[in-house]
Amino acid sequence: MLAALVQNSGLIVPSTWRVPTPVGRSAHAVMDVAATSPVSQATRGVVVPTGSSLPDRTRDTSKEKVVVLGSGWASVKFLQNIDTDKYDVTVISPRNFFLFSPFLPSVTVGSVEGRSIVEPMRALVQYGARPLSRKIKDRLSGRPGLTPEEFETARFMEVACTKIDVENNRVYCEDVSSVAGDRGFTLSYDRLVVGVGAISNTFNTPGVKENAFFLKEIEDATVIRSRMLDAFESAALESDAAKMKSMLEFVVVGAGPTGVEFAAELDDLIRGDLINLYPQQAEVAEVVLVSSTDDLLSSYDKRISEFTAELLKQSRVRVEAGVRVVEVKESAVVCKRKATGEEFDLPSSLTLWSTGVKPLPLVEELIAAVPEQTKRSGLYVDSSLKAYGLDNVYAAGDCAAVASGSSMQSDLKKLFKTADVDGGGTLTKEELLQLFDKIEDRYPQAAVFKSKVEEGFAEADVDASGELDEEEFAGLLKEVDSFMRNLPPTAQVAGQQGSYLAAQFNGENDKPFKYFHKGSMAYIGQDKAAAQVSMLKNLLPEFLQGLPLVGEDIVLTGSLAEVVWRFLYLDMQISNRNKLQVGFDWVKTIIFGRDTSRY
Q: Of 190, 274, 196, which Cα lies nearest the Cα of 505?
């Protein structure tokens, strides 16, 4: 899933630090460990005065100071390309490593070791970690500060950012580790790069935070793995067939790349490895994939969606499509069929929630403090990735919402007139649905608007008249658009944005950011994958991109796509060490099978 390289940046947390518990129901069970610290008291919900007693750890230098928040795709690509001879760069994150998040499902089932997909941040800021193309540019510049001998590395600090004070150009940091040295301090900046990623979006669904698991961090994979294997061990002790069956029901909510890959990998583990150790239990174990849309991998080519659905049928993964989750209980998921309104329960001993992302509280606070920030999906940035309403703050990756494309709000009157076919001055639900079907080619976000109308027409109909007038229609567009993002929250996007931002800071590129989509991939089980490659199309001039054959995406499915998936994912590892380790893990799995010990 090149499009599912999700990613994720090092988590920058609010002042109340939350950490996953090593055992228990949810990987996101939390505890407060900083509630009484000086930083959390001073910065919770208010701007700390310039004269704060916290020490300032800004370096004394004549260089322009750049502070980078996060240790994910966007931040790492920025750090590997930024001119440290020109800028004094400090990167802060409570996670001291980069994580290749697309392999988290593989770590959960033991196909890949967790240590194989992480790389220390302190190693990634060294000269040797810079890409070959950047080293060549450094050498051609002739500047001694960009040679291996004189290169000045970015400073890394394993701390959490608890507050961004845009009025005074400083960030507030806190050491939230178990061995805390300097509890709190500040850093001043001339430019701030926010690359903190995002967190799972629960859509305020009852019970999700308390009873569901998330797959965003390496700790999540460890907790889920332990929970799943514990279910098999406990079921092996159960003599009652019905109780044993209930212990082995696993529900995955969300049919995007992460959800599909986890469901497929889990089914592979059950049918390929656990069947030999728990034969009776593996026979009754079931993985259920819940999709709110009728299609799986709905952002991919229709052929991929259909192939995935057919393959999952063969793998005994049960798909519940067109279903919305209304509540997650401790041992069940309450669902509602969108077509009929019927509610039903899915038994579940482990529920994985994988339905999209939303900004961290740190970013939400910044958005709320700036009137020009009109998006709720992330920090709203222009085509140069600079945040609206802020002169020296930039954002990249999952935490950024980039302005681009046609705006449905700006075309409000024209769209309303197009939809109002009978000229009555109001729009029925049917007229709205027909409108979004007509304009999907011009406005890719129209599908999201259509889904919103199907589920929440009554919410948009403020006066309960059964139809929307122009004002209500405008309110609908504004509400839905605030949650929209023009680019998917993937590592492919984040990496390109990080590299672009570094080139812009270096003075090498003054053009607007343009995303180059290389393709989308997903592992779908039984040693098969699906790939949608867009590189050839995007290399063509825009007027040729619609031509048959040369202007179309290349779609691969099956075993060949799985070979391509492995090759490309191996190549995308951030270091040669990771490439070697992942390759070795795959060889071990082929020869000896997956490790099924619970540790």
A: 190
**Judgement on whether residues 280 and 258 belong to the same structural domain of the protein:** yes
DSSP state of 467: S
CA distances from 46 to 15, 362, 370, 554 (A): 12, 12, 14, 52
Q: Which residues contact 92 (CB under 8 A, 6 or more apart)?
A: 12, 67, 68, 69, 156, 157, 158, 159, 160, 161, 171, 173, 187
**Pair 34, 168 in one domain:** yes
Strand partners, 527: none
Q: How far is the CA of 66 from the CAs of 139, 190, 257, in angstroms?
A: 23, 6, 34
Provide φ and ψ at 542, rounded to 5°.
-60, -35
- Six-digit token string for 326: 């209304």
Cα(104)–Cα(118) distance, integer angstroms: 11
Q: Is pTM beyond 0.85 here?
A: no
Q: What is the mean pLDDT of residues 293-321?
A: 86
Q: Are 518 and 2 in contact (CB under 8 A)?
A: yes
* In contact, 21 and 29? CB cutoff 8 Å: yes
Whether residue 331 sits in one domain with residue 242: yes
Instruction: Tell me the C-alpha distance between 8 and 198, whole Å.
Output: 7
Give the pLDDT confidence score for residue 513 in this predicted structure: 92
H or E segment and range at residue 236:
helix 218-236
Tokens matching residue 246: 């209930």
**pLDDT at site 461:** 81
Q: Give the amino acid at 199.
A: I
Query: In angstroms, rounded to a whole number, what is the distance separating the alpha carbons of residues 322 and 331?
Result: 22
Range of the domain at 135: 9-95+126-200+358-402
Same domain, 138 and 186: yes
Q: Are 38 and 173 in contact (CB under 8 A)?
A: no
Which of 344, 369, 402 is the last residue before a domain boundary? 402
Q: Is residue 116 part of a domain?
A: no
Greatest Cα-to-Cα distance within the chain, rounded to the nearest angstrom: 75
Q: What is the pLDDT of residues 502-561, one digit of tens each?
A: 999 999 999 999 888 777 888 999 999 988 876 555 555 554 555 555 556 688 889 999
